[in-house]
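Think of the structure tokens as a kind of shorthand, similar to the way a musician reads notation: each symbol stands for something richer, in this case the local conformation of the backbone. In the example below we present two proteins back to back. Begin with the first one, reading the sequence and then the tokens, and try to describe in your own words what changes along the chain.
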Amino acid sequence: MAQPPELAPTPLLTDHHSGVPSRLTKEAAEARARLYGNRTQPASIPRKHGVRLPPDHTQESFDTAIKELKSTIGDANVEISDKALIDGWYLEHPNTHDAFHIVEQEELVSSAVVFPGSTEEVQTVVRWANKHTLPVYPISIGRNVGYGGAAPRVPGGVVIDLGRRMNKVLNIDGDNASCVVEPGVTYFALYEEIQRRNLPLWIDCPDLGGGSVLGNAIDRGNLWVGRPGVDEV
């Protein structure tokens, strides 16, 4: 039996793309304890309904579409949102709904979550969604918790989780203080890679550390990769 979220080991960056560096295990555990200590609602409420179907879809048409996608990108990369909805916490947040929902868990919930592993598979998913008129909601990590997290704006939409399988640091240019990353690369991961390469760079990070570098940039957030003593202002 799985441990309750408040007792489970802290996800580490060495094991999971959205985890924390091992040196921050204690701080993460303390933050989780404070969160669960202040919780006034259960982390999960029994579901009243099955899969929240996308608009204008029957169970039959939805099943047909899902079967087609699984045959294209693999069964393991398509998950139906029919399981218990667990709010979790910052490091173990849901990719199906809003962890800090102000309405019921099942209101802004996805019908399915898909995990493309390449640009080509992203294109495949988008073409599939257009063919079957399915609303999609792409996320990188899904930790924009102040704005609904990973919850699709259209109830029953399909979440495209770009982080689980696309989380590589493709390049870091020390001379230009720039980087090329996939959506699942967090600030933690980028910092660790900079340190591993022993590059004279620093990150001016407005995030808590576990957010997506690319996702924050697309949301017009701030990221500065600079050279100490050179680019400091």
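Once you have a description of the first chain, move to the second and do the same.
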Amino acid sequence: MATASNRIRRITGDGSDGWDLFYRAKDLIRQGVPVTELTIGEHDIKTDTSILDAMHAAAKAGHTGYASIPGIPELRAAVAKRAERLTGVSTGPENVIVTPGGQAALFAVHQFVGDPGDRALHIDPYYPTYPGTIRAAGLQPSSVTARAEAGFEPLEDDLEAAAAGARSVLVNSPNNPTGVVYSEATLAGIGRVAERHDLWIVSDEVYDSQIWSGQHLSPRALPGLAERTLVIGSLSKSHAMTGSRLGWVIGPAPAIDLLWDLSTVSNYGIPGFIQDAGVFALAQGPDYETRIAEPFRRRREITQRVLAGQKTVRAAPQNGAMYAMLDIRATGLSGEAFATRLLDGERIAVLPGESFGSASRGHVRLAMTIEDSAYEDALRRLMDLAARLRREADLADRHVPAQVG
């Protein structure tokens, strides 16, 4: 065939896209092999039937033609109202554009923040699509390490060292994969770097309804940052609507107007009946979001209980989101080697920390997305494997002969 563009051929950076263990687990499942699937952030409950009924009714009523490209007014207003309730920042429909899910919002925003060849910062560990999204927009991804020893929160000095000449910094709190919720001090440091270097802050807040400890704070709510912050949101996690592909960008009205131009030549709007269902979903209020999040709160407590009293496996701060990031370095294995042993020996699929960047080497990420007792059983089996591997490593160390010389 004819040659593809360099831009699309380099999306994965000539390497893995980070999902290798996920693909392998799916292949085993298709072959009929029973696998406990803990790789991907997909709720174990389905979209509520009342939301689907609203979607069906809207389609039957004829809302199946072209819908307003930036989003129907009712949905933009509902998103704005939710954002204002959560952040305290005055937000109107003019600050909102609707996108086909949070991933499309990330892509659109990186088309906006810079020109081809410009640098765009992101934090390591990161959601696996981040570098590829930046490359697909024609920008150069540049990672800033958030070290495990610092609780996986990025330090201002590290951001400062990387910021010269960049156009944006992508942050994610509550964080996937680590579960960390950034402190106000961390966000203030990010803001100071952004102001000194005139960066856009791209804030991925799709897990804002899943807070287990502390408080979610959007950088948009900090003094002086609203005019340089673009917030990514979605109904996928907050309302268990992953397949509906309904997300948004919140930002300054002039930025939203320009993103409208991009939507016109890319997706040309989201189906009206899905947007109507989004209006209905948001009208259920914060109590509904709490109910959708509750299974992950329980499983976070299960994780902490199972890990208590042992020293082989440690969890990163589980302050938010639907994941457990586990440090398994005491086993002597990399995250990838451990995840492979777990899949081969126990038929439990998790993602290695290496899928999320270099900062999470020696970790594995569990999606807490199966029924409580099955999740606890899988976690205990993981712990048993880790304990066996540590004993084997300790025994091997004791039998290493002393060097002569």
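Compare your description with these statements about the second chain. The CA atoms of residues 318 and 400 lie 37 Å apart.
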